[in-house]
Write a structure and sequence with these properties.
By secondary structure, this protein is mainly β. 2% of the residues lie in helices and 48% in strands. The chain is built from 1 helix and 28 strands. The strands form 7 sheets. The protein has a 4-stranded antiparallel beta sheet with strand order 1-28-27-26, with no helix packed on it. The chain is globular. Keywords: Repeat, WD repeat.
């Protein structure tokens, strides 16, 4: 299939030069109203980044608005959602120092001196991953480099000086942790060469949902559609959890070949899959149900060696990517909201394939 290197209608593309950042998160503006006051029309999300310089930054309209510091080392992970109820939202982070830290995004001061609300101890190794439970917004799941999984009650952490009682569940998985995803009371953990589901209420294993040999490099899921995606060296795979419930040897429903190097970055929503990696200057877009490739987007200023995609955040028709070298990095914003359903160039006699389709509120997934 003929794939365009750049979509012909880019309505909003912005490049920002930043220091090396390690992780990106997009959070809804309506959850952070105590931080952003005044005219906010047209801006629906706030970008949060973590960095190897021990900091967490909040970005607004291309500028850094807040900088939080407290970790004694690089910040390796950020919660995928904000924790808590309305009016008391907090962000969780995990560090090379083995701690989980909770931050109030509504704290005053440019440097966020009053932002740190709690520090949770229990992991013996760096905290690589974290996710908010789907059935209870105060529960945070974290996993450290030694594959130890911990479940924290952050509501108790922010209201009590006793931190040791905040851990309410533990488990372990074989292999190096890659990613995890919560849906309702289920926790999907990708580590080593397999993706495993746990029941958060009992911390018991439910199913081995996927096996990707020789090892997993990335993982994402849409549990409400029973679909999960794994990335490896040179290819990605699409899995249907329902087909693997009774199988001792899970089989994928589609394989996506043709990647350059390891597929370390994955995004899935009900309409599309976006894949990328540090050895490829382009991110690829695929249809979620068929695995058909629809486009390929340059994520750096050049497509030369050493300028691959190092981090990625996708929200509906918006995509943010970072690419960095030894001296600096490039943060690229694209907005396809006004052109989401235009078909890309195709070969003769091939059916049209839509690049993006805007997600309605009813179709969005955790």
């Amino acid at each position: 299939m003929a794939v365009q290197r750049e979509h012909q209608h880019i309505f909003s593309t912005r490049y920002v030069i930043i220091k090396q950042e390690s992780l990106l998160r997009l959070f809804p503006l309506n959850e952070m109203t105590s931080v952003f006051r005044g005219d906010t029309q047209g801006e629906k999300n706030v970008l949060v980044t973590s960095s190897c310089d021990h900091s967490i930054r909040l970005w607004w309209k291309g500028s850094s608005l807040r900088c939080f510091r407290g970790h004694n080392g690089p910040v390796l992970s950020l919660s995928n959602k904000l924790l808590g109820e309305d009016g008391r939202k907090v962000l969780a982070s995990g560090g090379e120092d083995g701690t989980v830290r909770l931050w109030s995004l509504g704290s005053s001061g440019k440097r966020g001196q009053l932002a740190l609300k709690a520090t949770l101890y229990g992991h013996e190794k760096p905290v690589n991953l974290m996710s908010v439970a789907g059935h209870k917004t105060s529960l945070l799941v974290s996993i450290s480099r030694d594959s130890k999984v911990s479940v924290w009650d952050t509501g108790a952490a922010t209201s009590s000086a006793v931190r040791t009682s905040c851990c309410v569940g533990m488990a372990s998985v074989p292999g190096t942790p890659v990613n995890m995803k919560c849906h309702e009371s289920l926790l999907y953990v990708a580590a080593g060469s397999s993706a495993t589901a746990f029941d958060l209420r009992t911390m018991q294993k439910v199913i081995t949902a996927a096996v990707h040999q020789p090892k997993l490099c990335s993982f994402d899921a849409i549990p409400s559609k029973y679909l999960i995606r794994t990335g490896g060296d040179g290819r990605a795979m699409l899995w249907d959890v329902r087909r693997n419930q009774e199988s001792l040897k899970p089989e994928p429903i589609a394989e996506l070949d043709g990647h350059c190097g390891q597929v370390t970055l994955l995004h899935m929503d009900p309409y599309k899959i976006v894949t990328g990696g540090p050895d490829n200057a382009y991110v690829n877009v695929w249809e979620v149900d068929t695995g058909v490739q629809t486009n390929s987007l340059l994520c750096s200023l050049t497509d030369g060696a050493g300028s691959g995609c190092d981090a990625m955040a996708v929200d509906g028709c918006r995509i943010t990517t970072t690419s960095y070298s030894e001296d600096s990095g490039v943060l690229c914003f694209r907005d396809y909201n006004h052109d989401a359903t235009n078909p890309v160039t195709k070969l003769e006699n091939e059916p049209s394939s839509k690049f993006w389709i805007s997600m309605s509120d009813d179709d969005s997934d955790d």
